[in-house]
TrEMBL record:
The keyword Signal applies. PANTHER family: GLUCAN ENDO-1,3-BETA-GLUCOSIDASE BG1-RELATED-RELATED. The gene is LOC100827869. Residues 1-22 form the signal peptide. It comes from the Eukaryota. This is Uncharacterized protein. GO terms for molecular function: glucan endo-1,3-beta-D-glucosidase activity. PROSITE patterns: GLYCOSYL_HYDROL_F17 (PS00587). Keywords: Glycosidase, Hydrolase, Signal. One of its GO terms (biological process) is carbohydrate metabolic process. The lineage of its organism: Eukaryota, Viridiplantae, Streptophyta, Embryophyta, Tracheophyta. InterPro entries: GH, Glyco_hydro_17, Glyco_hydro_17_plant. Belongs to the glycosyl hydrolase 17 family. The keyword Manganese does not apply.
Length: 339
């Protein structure tokens, strides 16, 4: 009993020390921006990379390999999430040599001048195509390993929140489908993070009117506090991220998989809650919030990528889809934000 409590307090002290170190701001390494290109009159890749640098944005997500962007990134120090386009995932899943060629062409050719962090095997893949995710990840892992890059660059896949069958309260977090169990186990074995697109905006707008306080979704003071197994949630983002951590722990109680936020954001036009003021509030609060971690991972800075760099007028779907940008195509900011 006594020994246990000594051990517990030593552990608590260690966690405290770890927490203190982890909460020292690690610069802006944890904030990136997604570079979507579905707009006309967008600046050249060289100008885009310059715009990232002049704003102190230190991470970029690219939805598919693009030669000019990768050449512009050479030597920039910007950390990169490189997606495998969804339509290429089946080929990478079925052939180790196709995966090896993909790595040669899109990674090795630019490494180490381009600071690749993760390869995302598809973005929000759904339906029967999900069966290709794990085989493609394994083929890419083998290709990176042969190239001597498996320590530096980690392979994952970018999921949306509905991979969870339940997410509220966070302790209810559970993966919906068996393939996610395989993904989670693979991530644990390689040390790669789970990439998750986490949008309080869609949770808020998808809920019945009045069900969620908009201030809770915007990291603003709110009367909503979710009490969940000793953790208090004062914003929806933390609750969503921790639901993913709970689901990972249900697959493996000792899971050390990190959740990296591969997209998050709030549109500035196109719906009742999509205003410039709300978009600015969400994105600035997000930037300021992520260093502190979540209630289940306090003090552990969250790596997050805002969606997106530009308003993309060629995107289809709801009007708001064309208004997620931080910048206009002429490089002027849609609203001021500090990274
Ligand atoms: C990246 O820059 C370095 C240093 O200038 C250069 O040696 C290398 O060839 C460049 N890589 C590519 C792919 O252009």
């Amino acid at each position: 009993m006594a020994r246990q409590s000594v051990a517990a307090s030593v552990l608590a002290a260690m966690l405290l020390v770890v927490g203190v170190f982890a909460s020292i701001p690690t610069g802006v390494r944890s904030i990136g921006v997604c570079y979507g290109v579905h707009g006309d009159r967008l600046p050249s890749p060289a100008e885009v990379v310059q715009l990232y640098r002049s704003n102190g944005i230190t991470g970029m997500r690219l939805y598919e390999p693009d030669v000019n962007t990768l050449l512009a990134l050479n030597g920039s120090g910007i950390g990169v999430i490189m997606d495998v386009a969804d339509e290429n995932v089946p080929r990478l899943a079925s052939s180790p040599s196709v995966a090896a060629d993909w790595v040669k062409l899109n990674i090795q050719r630019y490494y180490p001048g381009v600071a690749f962090r993760y390869i995302a095997v598809g973005n929000e893949i759904t339906g029967s195509a999900t069966q290709n995710i794990v085989p493609a990840m394994k083929n890419l892992n083998a290709a990176l390993s042969s190239a001597g890059l498996s320590g530096a660059i980690k392979v994952s896949t970018a999921v949306r929140m509905d991979v969870l069958a339940a997410s509220s309260p966070p302790s209810a977090g559970t993966f919906r489908d068996a393939y996610m169990t395989q993904v989670a186990r693979l991530l644990d074995s390689t040390g790669a993070p789970l990439l998750a697109n986490v949008y309080p905006y869609f949770a808020y707008t998808g809920a019945p009117q009045g069900a969620i306080d908009v201030n809770y979704a915007l990291f603003q003071p709110s009367s909503t506090i979710v009490h969940d197994n000793g953790h208090d949630y004062t914003n929806l983002f933390d609750a969503m991220v921790d639901a993913l951590y709970v689901a990972l722990a249900k697959v493996n109680i000792l899971s050390t998989v990190q959740v990296v936020i591969s997209e998050t954001g709030w549109p500035s036009a196109g719906s009742a809650s999509a205003t410039v003021a709300n978009a600015r509030t969400y994105n600035q609060n997000l930037v300021d919030h992520v260093r502190g971690g979540t209630p289940r991972r306090p003090g552990k800075a969250i790596e997050a990528y805002l969606f997106a760099m530009f308003n993309e007028n060629l995107k289809t779907g709801a009007e708001s889809e064309r208004h997620f940008g931080l910048f206009n195509p002429d490089k002027s900011p849609v609203y001021p934000i500090k990274f």
